[in-house]
Design brief:
The structure is a single chain. The chain contains five helices and five strands. The protein is an alpha+beta fold. The chain has two domains: 162 residues, Thiol Ester Dehydrase, Chain A, CATH 3.10.129.10; 41 residues. The longest helix has 41 residues. The chain is elongated and about 100 Å long. The chain has a five-stranded antiparallel sheet with strand order 1-3-4-5-2, covered by helices on one side. A hairpin with a 5-residue loop joins strand 4 and strand 5.
């Protein structure tokens, strides 16, 4: 069974589908678990104990461990990806990141996106054809409607006429007269003929050897 990549992505999140000023409320929410925060904090060697030392965190204003900002940003942007990233070709930049309110274990995050700007013909398309640059502003809120994260992201998105370079090369090769296969067949025929000649020489040599051997035997 052959699956076309286009069938796995949304049909309304190409470059042309975004308009400056559009605001999206993304479909899903995500509850932050202690495992996500503590495991990832330790894996990246973040030594800020407020992320993994509950005893210390009890002396802080919020009284609990604070979720590492990298985890918060990843969750919020991840929640936005179904609408803003399925047809992305390259992530260009992420800046103006702000963490407004601490995220605690058990908080549930929801994501929103605003389309800030679009560039139909970006100066740096990274070598891609039929792509455009979209500037998004993402923010996340918790279950109390408090803004916990803000950030701006720039991404190259496919236009509807996008075709991977590899497909274009393949199509070009198929449209080109079959010079290469003909050349290959000629080489194969030459090798076969060479082997046949070599085989004939071996057969003649063997036959001559037998004849000489028989003559010597008769002389005895």
């Amino acid at each position: 069974m052959t699956i076309q990549p286009a069938s796995l992505t949304g049909s309304h999140n190409y470059f042309e589908d975004f308009n400056v000023g559009d605001v999206y409320q993304h479909a899903r929410g995500k509850t932050v678990e202690g495992l996500e925060n503590v495991l990832l904090t330790n894996l990246v060697l973040n030594t800020a104990q407020a992320h993994f030392n509950e005893h210390l965190a009890e002396s802080l204003p919020q009284k609990h461990r604070i979720t590492f900002g990298g985890v918060t940003a990843s969750i919020v942007i991840g929640l936005a990806m179904q609408d803003t990233g399925e047809n992305a070709i390259e992530e260009v930049g992420l800046d103006k990141v702000r963490f407004r309110v601490p995220v605690l274990h058990g908080d549930t995050l929801y994501a929103f996106t605003e389309v800030v700007a679009k560039d139909d013909n970006p100066d740096d398309s990274r070598g891609h054809d039929n792509v455009g640059l979209v500037h998004f502003r993402h923010w996340g809120v918790n279950q109390r409607d408090e803004t916990v994260f803000e950030g701006e992201r720039r991404v190259l998105l496919k236009k509807r006429g996008f075709r991977p370079v590899a497909f274009d090369k393949e199509a070009s090769a198929l449209a080109t007269p079959a010079a290469a296969p003909t050349k290959t067949r000629a080489k194969v025929r030459a090798r076969v003929a060479k082997r046949a000649r070599a085989g004939a020489k071996v057969a003649l040599s063997s036959k001559a050897g037998k004849s000489k051997s028989g003559t010597r035997t008769r002389r005895r």
